[in-house]
Amino acid sequence: MTPLYARIRDASPKTQMLFPQEQIDWCAQDGLFHRYHEGSPNDRLKIFLDLSSACLCTAFVLTQFMGALSRIATYAPNRKNLLQSLLSGEKRASVGISQLSTSGRHRPPPLTATLHKKHIALRGRAPWVTGAAHTDYILIGAHQSNQKNALFLVSTDSLTVSPPSPLSALNGSKTTSVLVDLSLPYSERIHEETTPSIVNVASKTSSALALGLAGHALERLEKETQHRPLLQPALDALSQRWEALQVALFEKTDTVELRYQVNRLALDSTQTLLLATKGKGYSSTHTASRLYQEAHFFLVWSCPAPVVQRHLDACAFAATDRSNPRNEIR
């Protein structure tokens, strides 16, 4: 683990409630944003794999920042001054685009953009925006009246940011909803197209974060195993799964199956760590308890329908598999 990531891990307990501003500043000073921006897709995955192993909250916040950064670089290359201020850490950005993918898709669009001759009327709510009160800009996704989705780069000062939503974990991310009621010139729309390419569901980035969290849990489990050899078979089996999934992460693979498998590993590894640490691990201040709560985040964050269905199918199979004696009450 590099000095930067070690420093971030040491500070990770603070992020249960506090926004990781200090950790983000360390990343900027270390040149992490430049390395991410200039890196290959696998370089970027490695950054998030290592960062989430150090601190999931910091990694999650930075996925939203990097998501905004990458889209601004791709869709608004003329905004060079803004891009440089983001890369240096002088300015902050986040994204509010979940409403285009996994949030409220079975209801009317929560955020719409009505196209007029000289302006666009942006109305509604972005239900999940991470670190909204700590950003200068938010990249807002909306469903337009021409049935296409679009991205708008909006100053946070022009939006109504709600108080952070109390979460089961990652409260330090200060994730909240943002109310939007704006009339924007067309120049503020930086991209317009159909759904799939604006939001990459079952992306490898979310899988990298889940795998990083599992890796952190396995490091802790290895320390427990030094004093309790009976844990060794579980550690070996989980570690083999981790190694195989790390290889899959950096190769061309079925992203839905990958996400399901890393979700399962995050849940299994943190649950095993909780079993190993017993009562002390259940304390709200213990790392095992925190990691176990954080693992469940991957059941709801950017978890597209095919991944949800894989989890549901697994539950249904486990409940009906009568050939497995563990499913019978004796």
Task: Based on the model shown, name its key terms.
15% strand; eight-stranded mixed beta sheet; 330 residues; single chain; alpha+beta
Walk me through the structure.
- The radius of gyration is 21 Å and the shape is globular.
- The protein is of the alpha+beta class and 330 residues long.
- α1 packs across α4, α5 (56-75) packs antiparallel against α8 (204-225) and α9 (232-249) runs antiparallel to α10 (255-281).
- The protein has helices at residues 3-11, 21-29, 32-38, 41-54, 56-75, 80-88, 195-198, 204-225, 232-249, 255-281, 287-295, 305-320, and strands at 93-96, 111-115, 120-129, 137-144, 149-155, 160-161, 176-184, 189-193.
- The protein starts with a helix and ends in a 10-residue tail after the last helix.
- Strands 1, 2, 3, 4, 5, 6, 7 and 8 form an eight-stranded mixed β-sheet that branches.
- It contains twelve helices and eight strands.
- β2 and β3 (120-129) form a beta hairpin.
SSE blueprint:
Elements: H1 3-11, H2 21-29, H3 32-38, H4 41-54, H5 56-75, H6 80-88, E1 93-96, E2 111-115, E3 120-129, E4 137-144, E5 149-155, E6 160-161, E7 176-184, E8 189-193, H7 195-198, H8 204-225, H9 232-249, H10 255-281, H11 287-295, H12 305-320
Parallel strand pairs: 1-4, 2-4
Antiparallel strand pairs: 2-3, 3-7, 4-5, 5-8, 6-7
Secondary-structure content class? alpha+beta
- Strand tally, please? 8
N-to-C span: 47 Å
- Share of residues in helices: 40-55%
H/E series = HHHHHHEEEEEEEEHHHHHH
Low-confidence segments, given as residue ranges, are: 325-330
The portion of residues forming beta strands comes to 15-25%
> Biggest β-sheet, characterized?
8 strands, mixed
C-alpha geometry: globular
Give the helix tally: 12
Average pLDDT rating: 90
* Radius of gyration of CA atoms, rounded to a whole number: 21 Å
